[in-house]
Amino acid sequence: MQTRKKYIFLTFLASWLLLFFFGGDQLRRLAFFSGRKAEARRNWPHWTDRSLLKSFAAPEELQSDGDPSLPSPRERRAARLSVYKNSRCRMETCFDFSRCEKNGFKVFTYPQERDQPLSESYSKILTSIERSRYYTPNPEEACLFILSIDTLDRDHLSGQYVRNVDEKIRGFPLWNGGRNHLIFNLYSGTWPNYTEDLGFDIGQAILAKASFYTENFRPGFDISIPLFSKDHPQRGGERGWLSQDSIPPKKKYLLVFKGKRYLTGIGSGTRNALHHIHNGKDIVSLTTCKHGKDWEKHKDTRCDKDNVDYEKFDYQELLHNSTFCIVPRGRRLGSFRFLEALQAACIPVLLSDGWELPFAEAIDWGKAAVVGNERLLLQIPSAVRCIHPERVLAFQQQTQFLWDAYFSSVDKIVHTTLEIIKDRLLPHRSRSRFLWNTLPGGLLALPDFSTHLGDFPFYYLQHGSSPSEKFTAFIRATSSAGSLSQSILRLIQAVSGSQYCAQILVLWSCEKPLPPRGTWPQTTVPLTIVQGRGKLSDRFFPYAAIQTDAVLSLDEHTSLSTSEVDFAFVVWRSFPERIVGFPSRSHFWDPEQRRWGYTSKWTNELSIVLTAAAFYHRYYHSLFTEYLPAGLRELVDGLAACEDILMNVLVAAVTKLPPIKVTQRKQHKESLPQQVKGTAGAAGGRRFSQQQDCLNQLVDWFGYMPLVSSQLRLDPVLFKDQVSVLRKKYPRLEKP
């Protein structure tokens, strides 16, 4: 028993000795771990301790997180809630679709009050809407409403700030809490925080706003628009600095900026740091402190030198000669230089964190701009140097397309806004992002015509397809005689003999009744008669009977052979986006009259091909009827031969290309009505006077001259060559 106790005692003692020798160190570490950790933390140098760790900024600057003038998240949230009380609005919840079902997408602008002044920019916006094809003067037909109160400038320190907006809009019987309303705004908030406070409750209205914060933006409901100046043109606008499909010369500078530097307040951080990337060679960053009333109070040690360097460079010259342009935020997120850079084909490098880019719902900015981060400014030079030259060229060409398609005038900015809203109403018939980001752009690609790329004349190459191999002949008959003229009978026979003709449509625009069916000629293709309304614009109506891509537009007195028709159609299939035809005209600038002139003289240049004998794509019928406002079609109906000019102007505005003239056996002669043949000289002079008036009125409406001159005429191979006719494909073209 004693021996057993002895063995138990020795075993217990040995266990403690082993635990002490092999586990004691771990126990000691466990016991003193927290103490040593705290000691180690106490002994490490503090991050603001100047004696142990040098700092590039003062300790008091490091202790504050960001610009002290910036509003805190709580302040931003409070400001947001004060403006966007319906922050969860979507088209499905805050828009009444039923108002758009009966009359389609119509827009009504409130009548302007006499004692309510409007800024120049807001007047342009209202004018753009009233000039659009969507405008209606009847509020009962309207799907969307626009206030007559100027809401563009909501900085209460501005002279254009309108007070008591809440009280005014509540008195409008159509307001309905803002439902189905669109509000435009360029400036919101004021010094020092420039929050997005508009000073009134927008309710359930859609907000089209510049400098939109992404955290306040309601996706699929609001629209971000660009900031534009009061001098931005109403329509037309200046063209971009880079010609279409051209390669720009190598630029002197890689990256430039010239602008104000804010010494204090919101937006000062980014602009104050721009001098770090300036190298004086291919990267030029110029800032000036010399702006505002009390700039000298806040000026720093760099101001005097910066102001001197700033005056050494011309801003427009820098834009012309740089590949990339820095577009930093100002007091607000957007700035005028964004549109200036686009127009100059200077690729924008955006430094404006949180900015919802203009029309980003439709536009792919990744193909036209470099979106940087304000906190990573020093990485911008190396980032832009890494972009391949081919991609740089693609960026530059895309800036020119976007500028011309959506931003060059107030009309285009407003119409783009309306088209985006319209697309939301019928998502299944809306434009794809491809249509928005490819020539000719979303405004000129009507989804009501088709949503299939192959149905448009612009996308055959991208789609890998070709136009249909048949055409529809569309003959306009205007003879005052009750019977069919010999000219139209010969024309029907010549056209029906073409191997490419699918059908013939005759638009009967005569006062006399239709001739009996038995008097019409027998043809190998279907012949259909369409009763017109007596208007000149009827010839460009999108008739459902036209199913082929190509339309051969003809007047009844046109004289063409089958060979001429065949050759012209073969040419058109290579240029389906253009007008291809026979009789041509040209325009010119008359410096004495200070207006545009129109001539039928045979010269080396042409800019118009008459639709009395021309091929074009059937899509232009839809564009003519649905895209152009009713006022232009009424102009066409009131002036002789104005429909020819308008169709050519429209196609040139869409394609930026001239028409194509093809070989013609006989010179085309414009026919005159029977009653004026005795006074042909006077009638011809009056006709040309009306055509010139038409041309100048169209230029005024478009805001520029869309027509493009050309010296090109296409003839068949071996045309007029001294070789056997057996070797020529179209020998009949040379016969008198």
UniProtKB/TrEMBL annotation:
GO biological process: heparan sulfate proteoglycan biosynthetic process
UniProt keyword list: Disulfide bond, Endoplasmic reticulum, Glycoprotein, Glycosyltransferase, Membrane, Signal-anchor, Transferase, Transmembrane, Transmembrane helix
Catalytic reaction equation(s): 3-O-{[(1->4)-beta-D-GlcA-(1->4)-alpha-D-GlcNAc](n)-(1->4)-beta-D-GlcA-(1->3)-beta-D-Gal-(1->3)-beta-D-Gal-(1->4)-beta-D-Xyl}-L-seryl-[protein] + UDP-N-acetyl-alpha-D-glucosamine = 3-O-{alpha-D-GlcNAc-[(1->4)-beta-D-GlcA-(1->4)-alpha-D-GlcNAc](n)-(1->4)-beta-D-GlcA-(1->3)-beta-D-Gal-(1->3)-beta-D-Gal-(1->4)-beta-D-Xyl}-L-seryl-[protein] + UDP + H(+)
Membrane topology: Single-pass type II membrane protein
Gene Ontology molecular-function annotations: glucuronosyl-N-acetylglucosaminyl-proteoglycan 4-alpha-N-acetylglucosaminyltransferase activity
Chain ranges of the Exostosin GT47 domain: 103-384
Lineage: superkingdom: Eukaryota
Pathway info: Protein modification; protein glycosylation
Subcellular location as annotated: Endoplasmic reticulum membrane
Cited function: Glycosyltransferase required for the biosynthesis of heparan-sulfate (HS). Transfers N-acetyl-alpha-D-glucosamine to the nascent HS chain (GlcNAcT-II activity). Appears to lack GlcNAcT I and GlcAT-II activities.
Protein name per the record: Exostosin-like 1
Annotated source species: Calidris pygmaea
